[in-house]
Each structure stands twice: as C-alpha cells, then as structure tokens.
Amino acid sequence: MLAAVPANFKAELVACFGQPVAENPTGAMQEAAFRALGLNWRYLTVEVPAAGLRDAIAGMRAFGMQGINLTIPHKVAVLEYLDEIAPDAAIIGAVNTVRREGGRLIGENTDGKGFLRGVRGDAGVDPANKRVVVLGAGGAARAIVTELALSGALEVVVVNRSAPRGEQMVADLASKTKAPIRFEPWRGTYAVAGDTDILVNATSIGLYPDVDAMPPVDLAGAHRNMLLCDVVFNPPETRLLQAARKRGLRVLDGLSMLVYQGTIGFELWTGRKAPEQVMKQALREALGLMP
Ligand code: NDP
C-alpha cells in the first residue's frame, strides 16, 4: 500500500527588484540551481521603479518571500526598509541581497564576497597579505575594496579618474575598516608596479557596447605572477584581459564574481550548498556564451 504523502503545492519565492531589470541574467542561474536540487522555489525578475520600493518590500513581507536581490536603483535606498544590515554591507553602504530570519529582513552585500570567492576558488589566490590595486571608485569597487580590507590585504590602492570620488571613498573605508587603503589619482596611463600582486578593473571600461575600450594601464612593469581581474562580464573577454593574457599574466573574468555573488545568495536563502557548476553553465547559456 502506498503511504499518503501530504501534498505541498506552495513554492518559496525569491526575486530581483530593479529598473531596468529585464536583461538581468541572475534568475536563469538561480532557477537552474533550484531545479538541480529539486527545490520548489521560484526566482522572479520584477521591475520595481524607485518610487515603488517601499511597497515592494512591504509586499515581500506580506508574501513571506525568502529573499530578494536588489539592483539599480535600489541598492542604497533599501537600507531604510530593512530590520538589520550585515556589518560589511553597512560599511559598503549598499545591499544587493536580502535574507529572511523569521520575520526579520536582513540586508547583505554579496558582490565583494563573490569577487573574493572567485579570487580564492577560481584563481587560487588568497588576498591576505597581498598588495592590491583597484581601478575605480563606484559601487563595485566599494564592495571589493571593503572585502579585501576585511580579509587582511597588506595594502589596497584605489586608482580613480575622479579624485574627489576616490579620495572620499578611501577616507570612508579606511576609517571604517582600519585597513591600509590609500588613493592615487588616475592621470594619463597608470603604470602597474612590479610589487602589485592583484590588479582589479572595477570600472565600467570595456562594458558593452563600448567593447573595444581599454583602461589606460601599462602592464609592462607587472610581475609575472600578478593576477589581473576584470569585473566587466559583458563581454567577459575584455580588451584588458586579452592584453594581460598576451603578457602571460593570470586572469579572472567578471563572470566569476557574477556567479559567486549568486551562489552566496543561494546559500543564504536556502541553507544549501549552491550547485556552482550548474549555475555557471546556466549563466553562460543565459548570456549566449554557450556553443
Ligand atoms: P559606477 O558607475 O558606480 O562606477 C563606475 C566607475 O568606473 C567609476 O569609478 C568611474 O570613474 C569609472 N569609469 C567609468 N568610465 C571611465 C573612463 N572612461 N575612464 C576612467 N574611469 C572610468 O559603476 P559600478 O561600480 O556599479 O559598475 C562598474 C562595473 O562593474 C560595470 O561594468 C558593472 O557591470 C560591473 N559589475 C560587475 C559585477 C559582477 O558581478 N561581475 C557586479 C557589479 C558590477 P569616475 O568616478 O571617474 O567617473
């Protein structure tokens, strides 16, 4: 005789709130992960205008949703609607992932953590005690510099075109993390010094449609063991990565950070280990990178 199994047709819900949001590929990789683990979860990609965020978060609470991702223009604005902000997200000043703990909504930032997981896991480099140069002082740079500082980098040098923006970010993060972070203005071509262990392009230079753009950096002085990382993932093979490969340098593309910010989110929401390979493949397919 068959044992009666209580029916459960209720799906758990997570979502991405943003505007524009239609081209965000995160849902494809999260849904693939849910399928792979046999979880009855759904990831909804939802267009929410800036003026609708308060109601959207109230809706999230009413629906008992398990979590959300936030993208433009909500990453900073969402802070005031949450019950708690994780310490690193508070330093960064932005939240890209919300998780639920009982009835409480907790803001996290997985961008910088995703970057570090890629550096450690895909490139096999531990940033502790390393000299790191980060190009850029926008949202991505801020998350990356914060996590590098918290993971014991020997020194983080921020190089940015707009000096006031770079100086302000460095002063803020140095005081909050007590880590050795300093600023260098980006004038003309930035010559990479031989003692740089990791160079990160955290600017949007090279991003579609400006795919032929190349950050003005001179790699001639780079140490042969230096790791060069690019956060631009569309396209993943940027001019900068090509230039580094030609010099025989190790490289890490922006897909790595993109997939791992998602695997960390998946783990925060479900409490399960993320199926990384499934998510990587789904992301590549979603971006049209599979043969
Ligand atoms: P922001 O607009 O916040 O910052 C852009 C940064 O790029 C600024 O530092 C800006 O310098 C610099 N920049 C832009 N154009 C130039 C230029 N021509 N010359 C010199 N500097 C320039 O963007 P985000 O930080 O949000 O995003 C940056 C990149 O990171 C994007 O390509 C985005 O797609 C990518 N990203 C990737 C993620 C991933 O998971 N792989 C996650 C998040 C973002 P200035 O201050 O002088 O204007």
Structural descriptors:
single chain; 291 residues; alpha/beta; 14 strands; binds NADPH dihydro-nicotinamide-adenine-dinucleotide phosphate
Q: How is this fold's topology laid out?
A:
Layout: E1 12-18, H1 26-36, E2 41-47, H2 53-63, E3 67-70, E4 84-85, H3 87-92, E5 97-101, E6 104-108, H4 111-121, E7 131-135, H5 139-150, E8 155-160, H6 163-177, E9 181-185, E10 190-191, E11 198-201, E12 217-218, E13 227-230, H7 239-246, E14 250-252, H8 254-270, H9 276-286
Helix pairs in contact: 1-8, 1-9, 4-5, 4-8, 5-6, 8-9
Bound molecules: NADPH dihydro-nicotinamide-adenine-dinucleotide phosphate.
NADPH dihydro-nicotinamide-adenine-dinucleotide phosphate binds next to helix 5 and helix 8.
Short description:
This protein has 291 residues and is of the alpha/beta class. It has nine helices and 14 strands.
Spatial ordering of strands, largest sheet: 2-1-3-5-6-4
Mean pLDDT: 96
Summarize the biggest pleated sheet: 6 strands, mixed
**Distinct ligands:** NADPH dihydro-nicotinamide-adenine-dinucleotide phosphate
Order of helices and strands: EHEHEEHEEHEHEHEEEEEHEHH
First-to-last CA distance:
48 Å
Count of DSSP strands: 14
Structural class category: alpha/beta
The coarse silhouette is globular
- The number of helical elements comes to 9
